[in-house]
Specification:
elongated, about 75% helix, mainly alpha, about 210 residues
Amino acid sequence: FGEGAMVGSIFGVLNPLMIVILVPLISLATAEVRSYTMLMVGTVISAVSVFLCFIPTDLAMAIGDSWFGTLIFDYWLGVPVGQRDPFYISLIIFIMVFTVGEAIWSPRLMQFSAEIAPRGKEGAYISLAILPYFVGKALAGGMSGFLLETYTPKGAESFAGHENAWLWIGFMSLLTPIGMIVFRKLFTSVEQAAIDERQKQAEEALALAEIE
């Protein structure tokens, strides 16, 4: 995008702003939907969104010439006319769709972990659910450096294959929904067992209250 491009604002501002708005709305609207279903839907949307980086250039340019592009280029990022790369549009649409998926799955990850945990071990289960996130953070730096050096090397005058970096990220992102499909029976059986246990506890509490 060139020197001084406000690339950080695309994810650093758009993502948290959408999360703050969408999470309470989606949580309220889907309160009765099972956590596994929400995790599945959310991770699929987030993973598939990466491939929106491959929107055809002509389509991205058409969107950039619309009111949406005016809002992005003129009123938000302030991109000069000669530097309005169509990949700006692809990247922003990707982040928007990704964030919708994140708003669906992120609050349910903690909930699902607490739901399937044995009584008294909810904290331990939630901690274990968060652990892969920090492992991913540790590996992200090296992976990002490798992708940048391979597809956008320093000093190069053009970056014809820069989309390939997103292709790698997209395929890695698909591992989560694929894993949830492969282990679907395990996830759903554990979730159902937790639901049955809560119902049993509620019935026992009700029976005890009637006796008293």
